[in-house]
Task: structure prediction
Amino acid sequence: MNISEASGLENRTFTLTQQINSNLGYSAIQNIAYDPTSNPNRLSISFIPNQTRNANQVELFCNARESELVPNSKLEGKQIFVCSEYVRQVTFGLSQEFGVARQVVGNYAHFSTWKEQQSPDNLEGNILTAAYVDPQDALFFQEPSKPVAIYSHTFTAKRVVEPTE
Result:
């Protein structure tokens, strides 16, 4: 993860490239188109041709972002940053029918907390991802507002100082 010292915003292009390549075990990203100043709610990921089994292009649409700082009752003077965002992911890939692109739509939400620690260079966090059924799915009407899968991850972030030349 890379956070700009000037703006305080996450460099999503860097973060997503690192996360995807790390999970796949090889370089698969051709380009990530993202401009947080003109449209922070849309991100487009292009994969290197024939590098992934089921995605050539992924479009992410982020909505309903919320965030707040709350006091940490366990560490005096420290805060917890809480944030959430809802994401619609449209994945385009090859299909078994010639000339027809495969399109898969997914809806999910991320709920994150970042806790300041005694050291200003460390943060502890967790992210909860809730996956929802798409409105076009027949199961949507059985549980339209409850997630069908939940993933939870905890992590520690440490500031990495750029080497001086």
